[in-house]
Amino acid sequence: MANNNLMVGLEIGTSKICVVVGEGRTDGTLKILGVGQAPSRGVRKGEIVDFETAMKCVHEAVVDAEQKSDVMIRSVYVAVAGSHLQSFNNRGCVILPEDRDEIDEQDVEDVKINAREVSIPAQNAFLHSLIQHYHVDGQEGVLSPAGMFGQKLEADFHIIHGVRTRIQNTIRCVKELPLDVEDVVFSGLASAQVVLTQHQKDLGALVIDMGGGTTDYVLYADGAVRQSGCLAVGGDHITNDISMGLRIPMARAEKLKIEEGSCILGNCLPGEMILLKDDSGFAGKEIERETLNTIIYLRLREALELLKRRLDEETYLNYVGAGIFITGGCSLLNGIDHLASEIFELPAYLAHAQSTSGITSAVENPQFATVIGLVKFAQVMHSDRPPRGLGRIFGKLLGGMR
Ligand SMILES: Nc1ncnc2c1ncn2[C@@H]1O[C@H](COP(=O)(O)OP(=O)(O)OP(=O)(O)O)[C@@H](O)[C@H]1O
Ligand SMILES: [Mg+2]
Question: What is the pTM of this model?
Answer without folding.
Answer: 0.94
